[in-house]
Task: inverse folding
């Protein structure tokens, strides 16, 4: 019976566009990994993405903590250049998603779509002009912080309650103006609410789970989830074990988070944001991108309708991008 569900899941992944809204694969590329080489270090490459039917993947530019205090812009540009060099070698297979029209190519499966994002605003170095330059270089989304306080806002590691700074608010408004995704993953709760007050567009959490099921600071509370859904946002369920369950994280527990988020937010506000290549610890059955059908099989075995699963797999992210992108 288990094999029957998995076979049905794999067929679904061929028919429905699948979107993963958060991968740190560029961090692997800069260490020598290659998207086009099967078996390269990390959890994501072209073969594994294609095996899972993933048609659009968000690749983040994550500036490591050792570069955040000084040299953050230089490191982000090096990461970006590393991706573009890889793209040049694989441009027959990849498409950097920058405009609405690119989504048609992605949904048809003619090329694998890549949407570039910043994870943390340290690289902006207090200048809106730098945000605009990242936009011109293909970046279409950004998380304001990565755990720690920066010039934009407070992160989840702060014991006090630092909110959104004046510069952070200006960044949110500028991202609205350019049609960029605003990502509240890693934000302190006070800053989260202030971003929602400032933004005129839907806001997302690309990789976060339900705090009620796993009370980790990186997860979102019910009132946060409802607020994101009310504004038209999407939450991408993540596979980081510590965000899934304190004990025995599993595919079933990931499915629990999906079901709970749908209960709180509605099925139209939930998607996937694995955080592959962003964590060394993995969940059995979700070890890499190719394993994604195991989660789909779990949902189908629980009685989910294919239409609902299709929204979770990618339909909700694609709908939001069609609304936001220029």
Result:
């Amino acid at each position: 019976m288990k094999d029957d569900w998995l076979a049905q899941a794999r067929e679904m992944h061929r028919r429905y566009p699948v979107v993963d809204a958060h991968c740190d694969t560029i961090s692997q590329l800069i260490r020598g990994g290659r998207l086009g080489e099967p078996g390269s270090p990390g959890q994501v490459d072209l073969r594994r993405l294609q095996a899972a039917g993933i048609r659009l993947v968000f690749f983040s530019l994550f500036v490591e903590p050792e570069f955040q205090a000084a040299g953050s812009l230089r490191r982000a540009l090096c990461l970006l250049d590393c991706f573009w060099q890889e793209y040049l070698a694989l441009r027959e297979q990849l498409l950097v998603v920058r405009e609405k029209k690119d989504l048609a190519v992605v949904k048809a499966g003619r090329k694998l779509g890549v949407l570039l994002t910043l994870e943390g605003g340290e690289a902006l170095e207090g200048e809106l002009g730098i945000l605009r330059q990242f936009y011109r270089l293909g970046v279409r989304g950004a998380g304001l912080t990565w755990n720690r306080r920066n010039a934009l806002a407070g992160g989840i590691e702060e014991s006090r309650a630092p909110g959104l700074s004046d510069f952070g608010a200006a960044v949110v408004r500028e991202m609205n103006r350019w049609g960029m995704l605003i990502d509240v993953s890693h934000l302190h709760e006070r800053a989260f609410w202030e971003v929602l007050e400032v933004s005129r567009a839907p806001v997302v959490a690309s990789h976060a789970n339900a705090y009620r099921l796993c009370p980790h600071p990186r997860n979102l509370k019910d009132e946060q989830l409802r607020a994101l859904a009310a504004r038209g946002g999407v939450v991408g369920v993540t596979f980081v074990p510590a965000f899934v369950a304190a004990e025995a994280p599993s595919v079933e527990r990931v499915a629990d988070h999906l079901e709970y988020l749908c209960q709180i937010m509605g099925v139209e506000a939930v998607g996937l944001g694995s955080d592959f290549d962003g964590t060394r610890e993995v969940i059995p059955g979700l070890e890499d991108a190719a394993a994604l059908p195991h989660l789909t099989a779990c949902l189908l075995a629980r009685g989910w309708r294919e239409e609902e699963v299709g929204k979770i797999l990618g339909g909700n992210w694609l709908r939001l991008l069609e609304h936001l992108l220029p």
Summary: The beta strands are 18-23, 54-62, 94-96, 112-119, 139-143, 181-183, 235-237, 270-272. The radius of gyration is 18 Å.
